[in-house]
């Protein structure tokens, strides 16, 4: 019984804590009737004008709802209202070794080299070496 008492106290504390203010600013706080209207309009736009137009409509409705909440003072007006520029995808890392000028090697070979092992002793391993 004493073993479960701290767990019960933690669970009661979690259940008793009020919802965060951020939850009031989410799309989940939107009334069900308004969500249903947006969903039906999304379906209609998707069938008539395409996926991109329908997605743009939903995004615009979400931003408008957030601005309404911000005007009422329920949410901060600075976050989520600005459109963000899409960041370019990161370039894949080039695993080729670099030559003495700092550029990726054009010609590499595998050589057996003596390398340290986990146990402290030395061992042999194939290592990629630049042959420019």
TrEMBL record:
It comes from the Bacteria. Residues 76-106 are annotated as: Disordered. Residues 84-97 have a biased composition (Basic and acidic residues). Keywords: Signal. Residues 1-21 form the signal peptide. This is Uncharacterized protein. It comes from Sphingomonas immobilis.
